[in-house]
Design brief:
By secondary structure, this protein is α/β, with parallel strands linked by helices. About 50% of the residues lie in helices and about 10% in strands. The chain folds into 2 domains: about 140 residues, Rossmann fold; about 80 residues, DNA polymerase, domain 1 (Orthogonal Bundle), CATH 1.10.150. The chain contains 10 helices and 6 strands, in the order βαααααβαβααβαββα.
Length: about 230
């Protein structure tokens, strides 16, 4: 029976792509950088690439946060401070917290039945403000943010440090739910817990990963939990 549910934050509970779009549009406007939808899409691809390299240890957090803007400005041919862009964007992002469809209802239904925990690779200062703004604190026993934990998902040490703060943790009673194969699902596999891939875009499930469950929307998590009783 599942007792502990580890939930990724971005694009699992909060709609990060929407938050990112609004925050970047506002930041580039403040910075006076000409932009349109193609600029935002380009940034999103660059950002995803940089975070993937953080997960594999190829880049440090600061290299990600600064380098994504330096690469963007280089590609669009704009002279602008990457440092200033980083600071402005994070200020804007801190105030964005749109929910994934069904997330609030899910949390309301699960909070008294399971021990819920956030596990996020985001920047602590930004995630703290978004979590507070979205009033998420009341749903979770504890919130684990990689910058504060000291290591990133999918590294097993991230999970070991989280587990050390979860009372009477039994791995067989623990599941991680997240949208990222590389950080959430691989992290869960590394940690020896059950995995549930939130896959709203119906991406192909990789043959080389032993994923316990795949769901297309958050409502399907109820069926997963019933199967685990």
């Amino acid at each position: 029976m599942i007792k502990n549910i580890l939930l990724d934050l971005d694009d699992t509970i909060l709609d990060f792509k929407k938050c990112e779009h609004v925050a970047l549009d506002k930041a580039l406007t403040v910075l006076g950088v000409p932009h349109d939808e193609s600029t935002i899409k380009l940034y999103s691809k660059i950002n995803d690439l940089h975070w993937k390299k953080l997960e594999t240890g190829e880049l440090t957090r600061n290299q990600v946060l600064l380098g994504r803007f330096e690469m963007l400005f280089e590609k669009i041919g704009v002279q602008c401070s990457g440092q200033k862009a980083w600071e402005t964007y994070e200020e804007m992002l801190s105030n964005q917290y749109f929910f994934v469809a069904g997330a609030v209802e899910l949390l309301e239904n699960l909070k008294d039945k399971y021990n819920l925990y956030i596990v996020s690779n985001g920047t602590a200062s930004v995630q703290d403000r978004r979590i507070a703004g979205a009033h998420l604190d009341k749903y979770f026993k504890k919130i684990f943010i990689s910058q504060r934990v000291g290591i990133n998902k999918p590294d097993i040490r991230f999970f070991e440090r989280c587990f050390a703060e979860i009372p009477n943790l039994n791995k067989d009673e623990t599941i991680i739910v997240g949208d990222s194969l590389s950080s959430d699902i691989q992290g869960g596999i590394n940690a020896g817990i059950k995995t549930c891939w939130y896959n709203p875009h119906n991406l192909t499930t990789p043959d080389n990963m032993k994923i316990n469950y795949v769901i297309g929307n958050l409502e399907e998590l109820y069926d997963v939990l019933k199967k685990e009783k």
